[in-house]
Amino acid sequence: xxxxxxxxxxxxxxxxxxxxxxxxxxxxxxxxxxxxxxxxxxxxxxxxxxxxxxxxxxxxxxxxxxxxxxxxxxxxxxxxxxxxxxxxxxxxxxxxxxxxxxxxxxxxxxxxxxxxxxxxxxxxxxxxxxxxxxxxxxxxxxxxxxxx
Length: 148
Known about the structure:
Layout: H1 20-27, E1 32-35, E2 42-43, E3 58-61, E4 65-74, E5 88-95, E6 102-107, E7 120-127, E8 134-140
Antiparallel strand pairs: 1-2, 1-3, 4-5, 4-7, 5-6, 7-8
């Protein structure tokens, strides 16, 4: 019996004590990352204690906007559950909340060849097929109309 890899869902996250709050908040439609309540430093990947002052961190909402810091275009089917999307773009996005605060996600709603470093993006939350988890994805920021 052969397995049809194209029909399998993507791998599912395996939350741990540090990341559980991220997965819980995103499942409720809100993007939250860990932040130090003492010195206000954001932490991603999540850390239980601040790397600057050792205060216990807490999950807080972050903005949904940022800039593409770097990216790759996946042109060969390599990850189960994403072969039908080839070519697709995976980016590291620097969020507007803090220099160096970066989150990885797919870039959607744009042709892979049009993605570029420095591109402004907005995040949204989508269901990850094959389970109950949600993930952030990023799409190009729509230009704002000029007001007369």
